[in-house]
Amino acid sequence: MSGKTLYDKLWDSHVVTDRPDGSSLIYIDRHMLHEVTSPQAFEGLRIAGRKPWRIDANLATVDHNVPTTGRESGVEGIADPISRTQVQTLDQNCNEFGIVEYGMNDKRQGIVHVIGPEQGATLPGMTVVCGDSHTSTHGAFGALAHGIGTSEVEHVLATQCLVQKKSKNMLIQVDGELKPGITGKDVMLAIIGTIGTAGGTGYAIEYAGSAIRSLSMEARMTICNMSIEAGARAGMVAVDDKTIDYVRGRPMAPKGEMWDRAVEAWRDLKSDPDAEFDKVVHLDAADIEPQVSWGTSPEMVTNIGGRVPNPANESDPIKREGMERALKYMGLKADTPMTDIRLDRVFIGSCTNARIEDLRQAAAIVKGHKVAPSLKQAMVVPGSGMVKAQAEQEGLDKVFLEAGFEWREPGCSMCLGMNPDQLGEGEHCASTSNRNFEGRQGFGGRTHLVNPAMAAAAAINGHFVDISDFYSKAG
Amino acid sequence: MKAFTKHTGLVAPLDRSNVDTDMIIPKQFLKSIKRTGFGPNLFDELRYLDSGEPGKDNSQRPLNPDFVLNQSRYQGASVLLARANFGCGSSREHAPWALEDFGFRAIIAPSFADIFYNNCFKNGLLPLVIDEKEVDELFKSVEAVEGYSVTVDLESQTVSTPDGKTYSFEVDEFRKHCLLNGLDDIGVTLEDADSIRAYETRRRQEAPWLFPAG
Ligand code: SF4
């Protein structure tokens, strides 16, 4: 019999019972909540007269709706009454059920997928779920983490379990050395460009290979974060020293003797050498260039040195039509060099790229320069209050402010524009977020997905530029 | 939850692949704390020519005449015919809520995104997969014949068409059982409460750091 994959191990250690139809009841160690996908779940509990099964497994925060400026007057001060109600509803629900919540003005507040790892609420070997598709982020810790719908949020609250069918195993192996300045974001966009947005459907993906090992935990989180953009609910990376070093000392991480026991168990969180995968994809790290998306799906992506593709060269009629529609929406002509695309706004933020390393990479590019006068706005939205405080301690806020960026309070912000941070119709935005869907960042808005340094360089130049020179000089 | 056994209804063809949940129900409508009332804003950006906001009177908004659900021949449709990877993107359950609220009971596509697929079953909405060629065939028939209705039978796992064709589809036993009977799956899971407790006791021994509160 062949060995087990990391996913097999995580799955097996969480099966409560197997059901006759092939589904299983899976135990959930960590449940994260935010204001958008939870109100109907709490309401369901109340209607059925149920209580949460295990209160200490839950952790909540507000992130999607919260304003990123003017928080002095607290929740009462949220201008949009519907957003305010949603934020207040989470506060009330957490109070009523005794769930820990980092409220809007708590310094630990932030995007749910940033604060879990930051607080040590996400640990290796856990099952982590949240009513949010980017829960896959937490898989970077050798955890089984995926998004769920609101009915499942209610199910987890009431039973601490989920009914699941096991996914298939996919291995994405990225070997070799990444060029200087190539980030987790570029690796992931290149993967999605290769396998497509449905490439991972039905699979749990493990990212492995020397290039993945060489990346920091934060870069691994960026990669796992966008597993859902590749169609997979869950993505993960095996535990190594970097994982353990990152978790050590976090507020909710185990301490003392318990820490040692935990670490011993975590060392086994990797695929056995003889494990078999249902699908294996190889990428050569050395081939990966800085990526920029040109269309309305994350697979519509190319190298910074590339051009907007020409639908006439596409033989599949459904794909061709999709490309034509995307170009029309994006207001782009086929064969335009990516570096010719003029930008209106730049957004550095989101659960994909708003951790401290992301801000450092962007600041390194920005330092000593000014945002191009042709831009309407360039903003930096840290992923959490802790990231913001750390950045301010390092003086990064000054670098951004002096260059003409806005420096905001933490939250999802323009990643999806549920709060006032939105694109106007027809505006092009260089964004470090994860989705370039039609209307995602605002009605008629045109999103280009890039890494933080590329977004920073685009802000300074008013259009996309290849930043490889910067890194080769810095060498 | 509404049970689903057999449903006959008019088919509306949505001819594009990778329809994401942002498209099914845009973010500004997710601010509601209710499960209902999303139907009027289903496919908001495709359906209307202006930008929609919660509370806006939809009857006053300019409709996009090219959008399939605005065409008179598809009024009253309750079966949606779609292309590959339908429901990709965000996990928002507001997407099936909106489809259901609009009046859809079943969605036929060659493939669905996982989370969306799962969410449908929790809301009495049946997502069913038939293969690409068959979907193509259906698109042609639906577009050719006005008033084209199909019958979706969950018990026998078939879709039958007016021209006498029958397509079969797969569905998990457990999901089928819950949907046929309109069962609340929390209730079903809680029948296993003893197994959950036994798991916790064992796990607390093996991995006590996962139970910090003791
Ligand atoms: S930052 Fe964007 S993708 Fe991440 S949780 Fe918030 S809205 Fe979702």
TrEMBL record, chain A:
Subunit and interaction comment: Heterodimer of LeuC and LeuD.
Domain Aconitase/3-isopropylmalate dehydratase large subunit alpha/beta/alpha: 8-462
Cofactor: [4Fe-4S] cluster
Xref: PROSITE patterns: ACONITASE_1 (PS00450), ACONITASE_2 (PS01244)
Pfam family, one: Aconitase
A molecular-function term among this protein's GO annotations: 4 iron, 4 sulfur cluster binding
Catalytically driven reaction(s): (2R,3S)-3-isopropylmalate = (2S)-2-isopropylmalate
Broadest EC class assigned to this enzyme: lyase
Pathway named in the protein's UniProt entry: Amino-acid biosynthesis; L-leucine biosynthesis; L-leucine from 3-methyl-2-oxobutanoate: step 2/4
Keyword line: 4Fe-4S, Amino-acid biosynthesis, Branched-chain amino acid biosynthesis, Iron, Iron-sulfur, Leucine biosynthesis, Lyase, Metal-binding
Family per record: Belongs to the aconitase/IPM isomerase family. LeuC type 1 subfamily.
EC number(s) reported in the record: 4.2.1.33
HAMAP family: LeuC_type1
Top-rank taxon: Bacteria
Role of this protein: Catalyzes the isomerization between 2-isopropylmalate and 3-isopropylmalate, via the formation of 2-isopropylmaleate.
GO biological process: L-leucine biosynthetic process
InterPro entries per record: 3-IsopropMal_deHydase_lsu, Acnase/IPM_dHydase_lsu_aba_1/3, Acoase/IPM_deHydtase_lsu_aba, Aconitase_4Fe-4S_BS, Aconitase_4Fe-4S_dom, IPM_dehydratase_rel_enz, IPMI_cat
Gene coding for it: leuC
Cofactor binding remark: Binds 1 [4Fe-4S] cluster per subunit.
Binding positions for [4Fe-4S] cluster per the UniProt entry: C351, C412, C415
Protein name in the entry: 3-isopropylmalate dehydratase large subunit
PANTHER family tied to this protein: 3-ISOPROPYLMALATE DEHYDRATASE, HOMOACONITASE, MITOCHONDRIAL-RELATED
UniProtKB/TrEMBL annotation, chain B:
Signal peptide residues on this chain, from the entry's feature table: none
Molecular function via GO: 3-isopropylmalate dehydratase activity
One Pfam short name: Aconitase_C
Catalysed reactions, semicolon-separated: (2R,3S)-3-isopropylmalate = (2S)-2-isopropylmalate
EC number: 4.2.1.33
Keywords: Amino-acid biosynthesis, Branched-chain amino acid biosynthesis, Leucine biosynthesis, Lyase
GO biological process, one term: L-leucine biosynthetic process
Cellular component terms (Gene Ontology): 3-isopropylmalate dehydratase complex
Gene3D superfamilies linked: Aconitase, domain 4 (3.20.19.10)
Aconitase A/isopropylmalate dehydratase small subunit swivel domain: residues covered: 1-132
Biological pathway: Amino-acid biosynthesis; L-leucine biosynthesis; L-leucine from 3-methyl-2-oxobutanoate: step 2/4
Database matches in NCBIfam families: leuD (TIGR00171), PRK01641.1 (NF002458)
Family annotation (PANTHER family): 3-ISOPROPYLMALATE DEHYDRATASE SMALL SUBUNIT, 3-ISOPROPYLMALATE DEHYDRATASE SMALL SUBUNIT 2-RELATED-RELATED
Stated role: Catalyzes the isomerization between 2-isopropylmalate and 3-isopropylmalate, via the formation of 2-isopropylmaleate.
Quaternary structure (record): Heterodimer of LeuC and LeuD.
Family: Belongs to the LeuD family. LeuD type 1 subfamily.
UniProt protein name: 3-isopropylmalate dehydratase small subunit
Record organism: Halospina denitrificans
Gene: leuD
